[in-house]
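User: I'm putting together notes for a lab meeting next week and I want to include a structural view of one of the chains we've been expressing. I don't have a solved structure, so I'd like a prediction I can at least talk through. The sequence is below, exactly as it appears in our construct file.
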Amino acid sequence: MSERWCQYVREGIERAGGPVPFAVQQWQYLDPLTQVIRDHLPSGGRLLDVGCGSGLYPALLAHHGYTAVGVDNDGDIVAMAHEYGALLRSPATFAQADAFDLSKWHGAIDLVYSLGVIEHFDPDDTVRLIAEQARCAPLVAVVVPSRHLHYSGTPTDERLHSRRVWCGLLERAGLTVTSSFVFGAVPSTVSGIASRVLPMPLLRHLRDALDLGMNICCVGRR
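Assistant: Thanks for the context. Below is the predicted structure for the 222-residue chain, given as structure tokens.
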């Protein structure tokens, strides 16, 4: 799994033209999550990225006034994150940790988030993962792929729930859902027509109502 995941990340970086353009693309794509972080922590704060992958997103957040820590359970992934963080001269830090045991950061973080992690687990384990994140911070944001994942690649073991179901899993973990939304344009005919003919407020409402986005973001408060 480690070798396959490392290869997946590095291939994505190579397709983008290198770590810097990849970081720029990721920063732009994840702007909705960045806005969530800024809304809750406008003057900076402590962030924990669970399942940090390349580490480029927390590396950039650390350049914007946040104390960012990225963790992954695989040492090779953590080494990669260190490599790219150093390339960007970022003050972000990275560590190896199990997502089911984040005790080192219990009560020490302001907002914890994960990108494309919890959808790989059955619901009961997903609830455990979210609850463990909530032990670290009063605010938890999860980003998962939507049912439109097939437009970006071949799905593997992802659980492609609706936004309503994901919100329910946060509630099962003891959180109050404060917001949820979809983002990332779906490259379908219906989505394309809607984006051309509907005003933005109505388009956003339609996208959220129909889960018409590539990703789902749910934010919960402990």
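A couple of points you could mention at the meeting. The beta strands are 46-50, 67-72, 93-96, 111-115, 139-145, 176-183, 215-221. The chain is about 45% helix and 20% strand.

User: Perfect, that's what I needed.
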